[in-house]
Amino acid sequence: MLGSFAYCWGVLSGPRLRQVALVARDCGQVAGELRRAFGWPPPFHDPGVGQFGLTNAVFAAGDTFVEVVAPAQPDTTAGRYLKRRGGDGGYMAIFQVRDLPTARRRVAGLGVRVVWIADLPDIAATHLHPGDVPGAIVSLDWATPEQSWRWAGPSWTGRVPEHDPGGVTGLTIEVNDPAAAARRWAAVLGISAADRGQTMVVQLPDQGQRLRFVPARGGRGEGITEVTIAGLPAGGPWMIGGVRFVGEEG
After folding, report:
1. CA distances from 179 to 10, 159, 191 (A)
2. Which of 11, 96, 116, 222 is the most exposed place for a label (fewest CB within 10 A)?
3. CA nearest 132: which of 119, 157, 114?
4. 3-state SS assignment for residue 87
């Protein structure tokens, strides 16, 4: 049962949340907890994240992905984030877009700084400055074929392997100003935000995915605090890596 949201993906017609990353002091420990909780197969370890001073583990959740990153050397962005947040937590939200040049022009027009770009034949990425898009590091990515995803390893590079149904359907992001943050994320994504009292919601078109922005609490500052995934086993919620994982009905 997938709850009130029918989760599926056909032709990409708008921005899609394709990957969420957690940052942890111990990548292996958090990756192990995810495997034990959800029965996921072994993750892909991307040597490319070494350029950021990181190690990682990338799990497929349906045709979306959950990543764990951890600092492998001093003075990394991830390490500073761990210190600022006082421990493990949600770190990054990667959105797939159909027209990346248009998305890049849009964020430039909004005055959003870009901190890293990758342009490969089958995938491209644009990491945005978290000072300009509060609550996480947001990336706008493009892939061809649309359902492929090189960041998940060789089996997803230029093709789509067999995979279980389900996938990431939502995030909760704690921020100091939910209304302003939701409007900012929506502007970056080229869509709109809806005011629901204390919670601001950005609904991604046609994908059954949504982003919830709520007031920061607990003295930890801003960050992704909850990930909703369709297709998780019964039970939960689960607290792993400083993030609350919830099944679609949860």
Report:
1. 31, 39, 14
2. 11
3. 114
4. coil
